[in-house]
Write a structure and sequence with these properties.
The complex is a heterodimer.
Chain A: H1 13-22, H2 30-36, H3 52-65, E1 70-74, H4 82-96, E2 101-105, H5 109-115, E3 119-123, E4 126-131, H6 133-140, E5 143-148, H7 154-158, E6 163-169, E7 172-177, H8 180-190, E8 195-201, H9 204-213
Parallel strand pairs in A: 1-2
Antiparallel strand pairs in A: 3-4, 5-7, 5-8, 6-7
Helix pairs in contact in A: 1-2, 1-3, 2-3, 3-4, 6-9
Chain B: H1 15-27, H2 29-47, H3 63-92, H4 95-100, H5 106-134, H6 141-154, H7 156-168, H8 171-189, H9 198-204, H10 208-214, H11 226-252
Helix pairs in contact in B: 1-5, 2-3, 2-5, 3-5, 3-7, 3-8, 3-10, 7-11, 8-10
The chains are: A alpha+beta, B mainly alpha.
Chain lengths: ~220, ~260
């Protein structure tokens, strides 16, 4: 499945998928591929009338109908809206449960975090880390505390035990912590006015930055 | 590491591909309008006023018959060469690249293009024949068949020309290229007026479009083409097929 490009015109979605299926010796059932790609409602639509996201899903149906064991996707969700993207990943999961392998490249790290069983991070052409998303995030070892706390300087907060950096966004502050337990105790003791406290593990994006910046 | 099994080389017939290509082509209304409607309109415009002319420009052929075949040659040339525009469009949107990674063979792909081109040409010829008959063209069934066969053979170089241009040029240049080449070939070949003498005829006899128009001579009996006609058409077919094969390989990196 290629990232860019449109579809040939003057065929309906179903006809195009049928045509494509005919090019392969052991294709998937056309209706099944259309359903997997979430295109049931658009099967009769002419290809030139599809939106960007619909076009992308049709191309996904073309990829599915060939019934591959390995599906390679290069930034598959680029042109999709939120809804398309969501149903796309549901379809992807469904496809993977059939014992198929899906390999995808993406710049949306949340997407990789939520959907991949295994992530390979690359920087400057070298593999930096290879493992399940939870393991990768755990390697970062930092947590972030978010708290509503106006009128306290960033530098003051950054000097709390266990805190490495503090960044203010309006009334709220984000504290990146090497030891969030110690930081949290110190924070609540020193500033009783602090409220709406959230503690989150590092996101994949943080991990990405940390793991690739040294390379 | 165990040796991987050899990849399966199952060929697909490409029949369904051809069927959908045909369906696609005949669904495109603008395309149909210009490739079928345009020659018909020209035919009535040119042949209509000269309906009673029975010896057009010393050819011994009636004006409606001459222009019926002349415009059939124009319409079919257009139809065949327009394959190029369709190919260029498919290349632009990445479809050709997409097809290249399927098991569809080059032969099956090109065959589908040629069949589609001939189908549009056939529709164009049929429409012109009906238009011709409406202006009094009347020849025996055997002559109709012979004339049609000659046109079909005469179109072979144009099938190759369409594929050649389609894989050589991009969407921006294909229009002027096909329009221009068909216009020149139609002019030299005698589509607009008979070329019966002089330099124009000498040039005309060297281009395949001339022989398409000459298919009208079937109505006079005897051989419409002779060795010269067949040699010219086959020669061009060989040259343009080689050119098309070259352009296709260069474009797709496929042998």
């Amino acid at each position: 499945m290629l990232q860019t490009g449109f579809l040939i015109r003057d065929l309906s979605v179903r006809e195009l998928v049928t045509m494509f299926a005919s090019l392969y010796p052991k294709p998937l059932d056309v209706d099944e591929a259309i359903e997997l790609a979430g295109l049931e409602g658009l099967a009769g639509q002419r290809t030139q009338k599809l939106s960007g996201g619909e076009t992308q899903r049709t191309r996904f149906a073309l990829a599915l109908v060939t019934d591959p064991d390995l599906l390679v996707l290069d930034e598959p969700t680029v042109a999709m809206d939120v809804e398309s993207r969501r149903s796309f990943w549901v379809a992807m999961r469904e496809f993977a449960t059939r014992g198929k392998t899906v390999l995808f490249a993406t710049h949306y790290l949340d997407e990789a975090d939520q959907n991949a069983d295994r992530i390979v991070l690359m920087a400057h052409g070298k593999i930096v880390v290879d493992g399940p998303p939870t393991e990768i995030k755990a390697r970062v070892g930092t947590r972030t505390i978010r708290v509503t706390l106006p009128d306290v300087a960033e530098a003051e907060l950054a000097s709390l035990p266990g805190v490495s950096t503090a960044t203010r966004h309006g009334a709220s502050v984000a504290l990146v912590c090497t030891d969030s337990d110690a930081a949290l105790r110190a924070l609540l003791t020193a500033y009783p006015a602090a409220r709406d406290v959230e503690v989150a593990g590092a996101g994949l994006e943080d991990a990405f930055i940390e793991l690739t910046s040294g390379a | 590491m165990p040796a991987l099994p050899a990849p399966e080389r199952e060929t697909v017939t490409g029949l369904a591909y051809t069927r959908f290509e045909l369906r696609r082509t005949f669904r495109n209304r603008r395309f149909l309008f210009f490739s079928l409607g345009f020659p018909i309109a020209l035919f009535f415009l040119i042949a209509g006023p000269n309906k009673g002319e029975h010896d057009l420009g010393g050819t011994g052929i009636s004006a409606p018959l001459y222009y019926m075949v002349a415009l059939a040659s124009f319409g079919t040339m257009m139809g065949m060469v327009s394959t190029g525009a369709r190919i260029a469009g498919e290349r632009q949107v990445g479809w050709t690249r997409q097809l290249r990674v399927t098991p569809l063979s080059s032969v099956a792909y090109l065959r589908a293009k040629v069949i589609t081109a001939y189908a549009t040409a056939a529709a164009s010829v049929a429409a012109l024949y009906v238009a011709g008959a409406s202006l009094g063209v009347s020849i025996s069934a055997g002559r109709w068949a012979e004339m049609t066969l000659l046109i079909a053979i005469g179109l072979m170089p144009f099938a190759a020309l369409g594929i050649f241009l389609g894989h050589l040029l991009n969407v921006d240049s294909i229009g002027p290229a096909t329009g221009g080449s068909v216009t020149i070939l139609a002019f030299v070949g005698g589509t607009w007026f008979p070329v019966t003498s002089g330099v124009l005829r000498a040039i005309g006899r060297c281009v395949p479009s001339y022989w398409l128009v000459q298919a009208a001579h079937v109505a006079l009996g005897g051989s419409a083409w002779g060795m010269r006609g067949f040699a010219t058409v086959i020669g061009w077919t060989i040259v343009l097929t080689a050119a098309a094969a070259w352009a296709y390989r260069r474009d797709t990196g496929r042998t």
